[in-house]
Amino acid sequence: MANRHSFLSTTGLIRTPSSASxxxxxxxxxxxxxxxxxxxxxxxxxxxxxxxxxTQPKLRSNAGVVPLGPVFIVGMVVVLSLLFxxxxxxxxxxxxxxxxxxDLLNDLARNNPGILLIGDNVDMDVDEPAVxxxxxxxxxxxxxxxKGSEGTHGSSLCGVPNEPLSxxxxxxQTPAATYDPDIIxxxxxxxxxxxxxxxxxxxxxxxxxVHEARLYPFDTYHLTTNIRVEISNDTSVVAPIxxxxxxxDTASFIIRSSDAASTVTLSSSSSSxxxxxxxxxDLDMAIQRPGExxxxxxxxxxxxxxxxxxxxxxxxxxxxxxxSQRAAYYxxxxxxxxxxxxxxxxxxxxxxxxxxxxxxQIGLFSQMVVSGISSVILLGTxxxxxxxxxxDANLARERNFRSAATPEPVxxxxxxxxxxxxRHIRSLSKKFLTRIDPPTPISEYPEQISLxxxxxxxxxxxxxxxxxxxxxxSRQRGG
Length: 479
What we know:
10 strands; alpha+beta
């Protein structure tokens, strides 16, 4: 029970004496001497080390945790940035050109030798729209390969053809390209054929199907072409085309192609009535955007709309603010936004021109309309506030001019301190009238009436409140 605390002591309203305080109270002399010794020791410390407390700042902590310093935070940000850049740079490691068609060529040389065309480059022009394909004339199989030319596209079983060829594209009467193996140079050092691209490569231009061109970045272009190859020395002999292949990935597009064997009916060179069936090869291509290009295009589309919505916010902020300078500031931001939005549209990957495609109808054109309307509203708000400011300035100038032209005595009379209160005069007149006796008839005592009412006026309310005296006068006259 001795250690039990009361309610006031537990709540802090009354502090219970501690052992230290009781000791201090019981021995005041020892406490005083201890305090003196402590004070002396502190003075000695200050004399010995006077600069430590001033030069070394104390560390501030929050719940026992010391916060990080600004230098450490900046250093960590720089290190993380460098690590991020280094991680992204690892994408270039191992990205060298690989033999994309190596496995395909080796398989053809073993199972289906012959002539094939490889589309090493596909140049897409979305503004035309057209596509240019650069073909390489390749032969696989020992019976078709020119000796010393092996090793093309990473395959030791394929090279350039050993026969002169004429290549026809899309049923044309004149060959799109000719190939002559005799002009292929031989290296004197290695005793092998040099790979000169212009001697066995040619370009072909094709028009694309553009029914889905307006759906950028989800646009897809289609192409169908036919190619046949003939031996130039003997036009009656047709070289078999085993495959037509193209690249699958370019800088801005993904290409999906498929080929199939076909025949072309041609008239014989000896007789126009005689027709022959010549083997050929058909190629179907579908060209579309990669997923990365679609992602970045949609991100830029969304950012452009955010900028357009920001101009509407500028209008709302300008209405809530009464300052002309703030309105001018928001107007500048709105005009800058109108200049930024077309630049974001141009940065979209391989974007087409401003031809009214879908992303422009729901994006660029609408965004420019919203931003333009917001800029016009801000301009009108700024003009209104400036005109109001001019009118207020003119009114203030006119007031200052009138106050300067008014003389000083008139100013004093017009001032609030020169006003006179006449209400006390009315109270005095009421007191004066109440002290005078009621008047007698006018015919008998005109002098008294003139004395009692010197102004010749009497309120009707006073007549109503007085007792009539005509009866009393008649009684006196009668008596």
